[in-house]
């Protein structure tokens, strides 16, 4: 669905009276198929966000081409909201603080569909539900939510037109570990349901490892290595990837998901932790972290605190 060929980008940087040129991306080649989850990993300043902005059409490359849905993109280009959406690290700055959530979510529908108000409201309500927010959120403003809830709103807005590709630029970096886990789970569930292609950008290998099926490692604007996530994580070929992996902290928590029926006691739960085969912690031990009695009406996510 997306092919990036020999893409390069240079910025001019002014320091005092001197202008220098900084090559941020060099000969980037990537081929992303529909439904894949790509993780783009690299340290700060390696060019990840620049690449994301170019793919999203917010900036033009110097050279190279992008083929999207079999069409070569020319720059500057109009936004393609039905095809590409982007989610940023800080939802507070990407959500209009003066608009209620109902207007924030209505905007893409109003601008890009001919749906009448009633149908748009129906879609908005269903997306609030999909991201596990209450209907009363409609009348609230972004500042009335927590960071995690705001990122859920940003996700609902990104998904509302059901785009083919969502670029997620460090979407969980600003969140607490437990909230990170909930958002990652949600991303996984939504991807499974809607078969959306993800380009997930992060400097955090643990996060990439959890979500991505394919990985590209970027360093100083060069893609050093790319391929299946499992293969890259188990036998990295490039010395830089080896170094990244050896320096990476182990998963801070194992991301797990427990399903509870309303008012059930812990003993009657059904554990579907995605790490159940790999987790070094025995199931019984792992469950010690969960409150003895939970009264929930729906799915509850938690992070196992064992390291
Ligand atoms: N508009 C710009 N003008 C000049 N230089 C820029 C501009 N945008 C980014 N840069 C520089 O390009 C380099 C790559 O930046 P970029 O934001 O793409 O990296 P990144 O890997 O996303 O980093 P981070 O993880 O810290 O966000 C950095 O040295 C940055 O200072």
Question: Quick gist of this model?
Answer:
Helix content is 31%, strand content 27%. With 307 residues, it is α/β, with parallel strands linked by helices.
3D structure, described in words:
- It is a single chain.
- The chain has 307 residues and is of the alpha/beta class.
- It folds into 2 domains: 2-247, Rossmann fold (3-Layer(aba) Sandwich), CATH 3.40.50.300; 254-304, no CATH class.
- It has 10 helices and 13 strands.
- The strands form 3 sheets. The chain has a 6-stranded mixed beta sheet, sandwiched between helices.
- Strand 7, helix 6 (177-194) and strand 8 form a beta-alpha-beta unit.
- Helix 4 crosses helix 5 (147-159).
- The longest helix is centred in the middle third of the chain and has 18 residues, at 177-194.
- The radius of gyration is 21 Å and the shape is globular.
- Bound molecules: adenosine-5'-triphosphate.
Core attributes:
2 domains, Rossmann fold, 13 strands, 307 residues, 27% strand, four-stranded antiparallel beta sheet, globular, single chain, binds adenosine-5'-triphosphate, 10 helices
């Amino acid at each position: 669905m997306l092919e990036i060929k020999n893409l390069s980008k240079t910025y001019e940087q002014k320091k005092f009276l001197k202008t220098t040129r900084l090559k941020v991306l060099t000969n980037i080649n990537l081929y992303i198929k529909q439904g894949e989850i790509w993780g783009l990993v690299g340290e700060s300043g390696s060019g990840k966000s620049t690449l994301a902005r170019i793919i999203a059409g917010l900036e033009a490359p110097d050279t190279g081409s992008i083929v999207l849905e079999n069409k070569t993109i020319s720059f500057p280009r109009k936004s393609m909201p039905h095809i590409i959406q982007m989610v940023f690290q800080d939802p507070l700055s990407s959500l209009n603080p003066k608009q209620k959530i109902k207007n924030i979510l209505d905007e893409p529908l109003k601008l890009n569909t001919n749906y009448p108000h009633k149908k748009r409201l129906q879609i908005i309500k269903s997306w609030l539900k999909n991201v596990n927010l209450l209907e009363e959120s409609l009348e609230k403003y972004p500042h009335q939510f927590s960071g995690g809830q705001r990122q859920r709103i940003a996700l609902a807005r990104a998904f509302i037109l059901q785009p083919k590709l969502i670029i997620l630029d460090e979407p969980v970096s600003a969140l607490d570990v437990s909230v990170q886990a909930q958002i990652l789970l949600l991303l996984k569930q939504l991807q499974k349901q809607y078969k959306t292609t993800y380009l997930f950008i992060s400097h955090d290998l643990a996060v990439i490892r959890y979500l991505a099926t394919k990985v590209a490692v970027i360093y100083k604007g060069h893609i050093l290595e790319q391929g299946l996530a499992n293969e890259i994580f188990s036998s990295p070929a490039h010395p830089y990837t080896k170094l990244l992996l050896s320096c990476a902290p182990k998963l801070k928590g194992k991301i797990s998901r427990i399903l509870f029926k309303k008012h059930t006691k812990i003993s009657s739960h059904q554990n579907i932790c995605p790490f159940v085969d790999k987790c070094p912690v025995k199931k019984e031990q792992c469950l010690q972290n969960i409150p003895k009695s939970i009264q929930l009406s729906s799915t509850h996510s938690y992070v196992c605190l064992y390291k």
